[in-house]
TrEMBL record:
<feature type="transmembrane region" description="Helical">
    <location>
        <begin position="749"/>
        <end position="778"/>
    </location>
</feature>
<feature type="transmembrane region" description="Helical">
    <location>
        <begin position="676"/>
        <end position="706"/>
    </location>
</feature>
<dbReference type="Pfam" id="PF02990">
    <property type="entry name" value="EMP70"/>
</dbReference>
<keyword id="KW-0333">Golgi apparatus</keyword>
<keyword id="KW-1133">Transmembrane helix</keyword>
<feature type="transmembrane region" description="Helical">
    <location>
        <begin position="594"/>
        <end position="618"/>
    </location>
</feature>
<feature type="transmembrane region" description="Helical">
    <location>
        <begin position="522"/>
        <end position="543"/>
    </location>
</feature>
<comment type="similarity">
    <text>Belongs to the nonaspanin (TM9SF) (TC 9.A.2) family.</text>
</comment>
<dbReference type="InterPro" id="IPR004240">
    <property type="entry name" value="EMP70"/>
</dbReference>
<keyword id="KW-0812">Transmembrane</keyword>
<feature type="transmembrane region" description="Helical">
    <location>
        <begin position="564"/>
        <end position="582"/>
    </location>
</feature>
<dbReference type="GO" id="GO:0016020">
    <property type="term" value="C:membrane"/>
</dbReference>
<feature type="transmembrane region" description="Helical">
    <location>
        <begin position="718"/>
        <end position="737"/>
    </location>
</feature>
<keyword id="KW-0472">Membrane</keyword>
<feature type="transmembrane region" description="Helical">
    <location>
        <begin position="641"/>
        <end position="670"/>
    </location>
</feature>
<feature type="transmembrane region" description="Helical">
    <location>
        <begin position="423"/>
        <end position="446"/>
    </location>
</feature>
<keyword id="KW-0732">Signal</keyword>
């Protein structure tokens, strides 16, 4: 009866001592004893006596396993063959009448072997070892017996992974497709509307809502009714807002503007009963004058579409600004709405645009008509506001409806494509040039130097001249992986950095493909907060594995510190800023209910996920260090001036900052000047370039540090990687001084506090990138040389 022999795959599990499970189909014909052999052949070039000794131990481990499992009648001949050495043969035999699973402990064999050859009754097969797989089983069934649970699970998982093998072959095309999507969405802000369109019939009511009052001079938002605007009939109705809207300071509320679809309004008075003017008290007049001088703007909504004021740039292109100005020297007491509509069917329309034109009209120029209607002289004077006295004014509005060919799904395009993309492409080209220059410099200086060093060190080991001394980075091999000071704190910030990096990448990816629609107000911030909490699982895993690698043991305390370190910093700074905002009665004050929601997310989602991930990471095998650490620390020689930590930080942060500073300008403009920004394709590309440039600069600085025999690289790599945050902070101060003209002590404290939050977050994220790039670089170069 011919032997049925079906190899499936080899899974190598380094975390569990690299075991190989062997089973065979119908190994025994007619219940007769059969002799089989398993030969393990290594074609590695690294052949040495130490390897043979380890393989001998492996075979002994095989014999012990077979005796424990009591296999049926068979004889295993295990041959370890090296091409240039005499083969060693070990045989083991044992009799039993039960099926069995034989476990061969390979130990370090996988480091020497690329192919396993199996011979059973003259049937040969070769299995190539795939080191990229996390675990590996070669499965055969004995005598029709079912697989054990762990083998069955591995087999099913293995076949499931086969479904994704075509993706590996397509990875180049997938990368090109993804890069094309980045460029496509970068060229024009792409988004998915996110809400269903609302259709209005002619004459149906169209509600105008107020959002808030903002100023680029104070950065202090206020509720719409913080100023003495006319109140609507009935109660104020505030919209239920999401967490992102609350943190932005939005307070969406109804207004007294009465509009009906496609019915124009020439002039209508607000809160003027019997044509009586509205009297502003001296305090109200002073408050309005103060807000006008601080350049406050009013933000309104129609059908979730923000009202804008059309302006013209120097090149003649139209641009749109959020809301309308409260006033200049005079009070803008009349608001003219221009609402663009698209006809869906007969007498059914959708709103596709919303513009506001604010005017100042003296109360002396109004001609009240019957009811709440009015008119004014064409050459009307402006409405002045006199401080310290009672001012009498009229509040009024008008509206016109204009047909537009713009489709509802494209109504945000005019908002999101205000500026020319040329400056963004210049930013991308500038960033790519910097990265190419940096990569070329790194390849020229480091790669050639490292290869030369490795070749020199290996020749030195083979040389018979024992008087030659080592020098350079190899000399510190006994201390290079010595745990740093405050190792637990390092692990905590690294876990936080992984959490922030994952949050940023996924959020930008979602925004880039249009899943965070601009019509979903506050969605970007809400998604970022939830992603930060759920990324705690990855933060805990990476922190836990590094914690075990550094030979630390109190993982529960460390996991709690990892989960609490950064959120505690945010909470303390945010609470101080919230108190400052609350004292000024700003709508930016985070209410107590929202604070409790944030704390619930932190305690119920973030902390448990971080601790779970930390536990899994701590149970995993630690990162492999190719060299041993000496018991006595080596003294660091006198260092040259360029290895000073301050010089390293100042130098290493320049190029990553230059790679992103143009895009940083647009981000700051959107944040602090209430401008639109939705070019997340550009932002995603710049972010990837930032990560690459940070990693390259960190490797470069750490190599030069090791070259002068300084092995204190752990914290240095983190500070060097995060050094661009220092330039982000400096640029923020420069931007405030030259672009914002912030007035008042409290607004300056707020800007400074928010800048600290942004800079520290950026520092932890980029510092983590720099650390892991340096860590894997150090492991790589020290695994390439022979160490006695």
């Amino acid at each position: 009866m011919p032997l049925q022999f079906e190899p499936y795959r080899v899974l190598i599990n380094e975390a569990k001592d690299q075991a190989l499970l062997i089973k065979s189909h119908n190994l025994f014909a007619n219940n007769r004893s059969t002799e089989n052999s398993l030969s393990v052949t290594s074609n590695s070039k690294k052949e040495n006596k130490e390897g043979i000794g380890r393989l001998s131990d492996c075979v002994s481990g095989l014999q012990a396993s077979v005796q424990r499992l009591k296999p049926i009648a068979c004889c295993f001949n295990v041959s370890v063959i090296f091409p240039s050495l005499q083969p060693r043969l070990h045989s083991i035999s044992h009799q039993t009448s039960r099926p069995f699973s034989c476990i061969l402990h390979l130990h370090h064999l996988i480091r020497l072997t690329k192919t396993i050859s199996v011979n059973i009754q003259g049937h040969d097969t070769s299995i190539a070892i795939d080191r990229a797989k996390p675990a590996f089983f070669l499965d055969y069934d004995l005598h029709g017996t079912s697989l054990p649970n762990h083998a069955r699970t591995a087999f099913l998982l293995n076949n499931f992974l086969k479904l994704f093998e075509p993706l590996k072959m397509m990875k180049k095309w997938l990368f090109l497709f993804f890069f094309y999507c980045c460029l496509l969405t970068a060229k024009k802000g792409f988004y998915i509307p996110g809400v269903l369109p609302v259709e209005f019939h002619v004459g149906s009511s169209v509600e105008v809502k107020a959002v808030k009052l903002t100023s680029i001079r104070t950065q202090m938002p206020y509720d719409y009714y913080y100023l003495p605007f006319c109140l609507p009939d009935g109660e104020l109705q505030y919209k239920s807002e999401n967490l992102g809207e609350i943190l932005r300071g939005d307070r969406i509320v109804n207004t007294p503007f009465a509009l009906n679809m496609d019915i124009p309004v020439k002039c209508a008075l607000l809160c003027a009963k019997n044509n009586v003017k509205t009297k502003l008290s001296a305090a109200e007049s002073d408050l309005l004058i103060e807000k006008i001088r601080n350049e406050y703007r009013v933000h309104l909504l129609i059908d979730n579409l923000p009202g804008t004021t059309k302006t013209q740039l120097e090149n003649g292109r139209d641009a749109y600004m959020h809301g309308y100005a409260l006033g200049f020297v005079f009070l803008n007491n009349h608001v003219h709405f221009i609402i663009y509509i698209n006809e869906v069917s007969t007498e059914t329309y959708r709103i596709v645009g919303f513009e506001i034109q604010a005017r100042s009209i003296s109360s002396m120029q109004y001609v009240p008509d019957s009811g709440k209607l009015c008119s004014w002289n064409s050459e009307s004077e402006a409405q002045p506001l006199k401080p310290g006295v009672v001012n009498e004014i009229y509040w009024s509005y008008s509206a016109e409806w204009r047909l537009s060919p713009i489709r509802w799904a494209s109504r945000w395009d005019s908002y999101l494509s205000m500026r020319s993309n040329q400056i963004h492409w210049l930013s991308i080209v500038n960033s790519i040039v910097i990265v190419v220059f940096l990569a070329g410099f790194l390849g020229l200086i480091i790669m050639r130097t490292v290869r030369r060093d490795i070749a020199y060190y290996n020749r030195l080991d083979e040389s018979l001249d024992d008087t030659m001394e080592e020098s350079g980075w190899k000399l510190v091999h006994g201390d290079i992986f010595r745990p740093p000071r405050r190792a637990t704190l390092l692990v905590c910030v690294l876990g936080t950095g992984i959490q922030l990096l994952g949050m940023a990448l996924v959020t930008l990816a979602f925004a880039m493909v249009g899943m965070l629609s601009p019509s979903s107000r506050g969605a970007l911030m809400s998604v970022a907060l939830f992603l930060y909490c759920f990324m705690g699982l990855f933060a805990g895993y990476f922190a836990g594995r590094m914690y075990k690698t550094l030979r630390l043991s109190n993982w529960k305390s460390a996991s709690l510190k990892t989960a609490c370190l950064f959120p505690t910093f945010l909470f303390v700074v945010g609470l101080i800023l919230n108190i400052l905002v609350w004292e000024n009665k700003s709508s930016g004050t985070v209410p107590f209910s929202s604070i409790m929601s944030l704390l619930s997310m932190f305690f119920c989602i973030d902390i448990p996920l971080v601790m779970i991930g930390f536990r899994f990471g701590f149970r995993k095998k630690p990162y492999h260090h190719p060299v041993r650490t000496n018991q006595i620390p080596r003294q660091v020689p006198e260092q040259p001036f360029y290895s000073n930590i301050v010089i390293s930080i100042l130098f290493s942060g320049i190029l990553p900052f230059l790679a992103m500073f143009l895009e940083l300008f647009f981000i700051f403009t959107a944040m602090w000047q209430n401008q639109f920004y939705y070019l997340f394709g550009f932002l995603f590309i710049v972010f990837i370039i930032l990560i690459i440039s940070t990693a390259l600069m960190s490797i470069l600085i750490i190599y030069f540090l090791l070259a002068v025999e300084n092995y204190h690289w752990w914290w240095r790599s983190f500070f060097v990687g995060g050094s661009s945050a220092f330039y982000v902070f400096a640029y923020s101060i420069y931007y405030a001084a030259t672009k914002l003209e912030i007035v008042g002590v409290t607004p300056k404290l707020l800007y400074f506090g928010y800048t600290i939050l942004i800079s520290v977050t950026f520092w932890i994220l980029t510092g983590t990138v720099g650390f892991y790039a340096s860590y894997f670089f150090v492991r790589k170069i020290y695994s390439s040389v022979k160490i006695d």
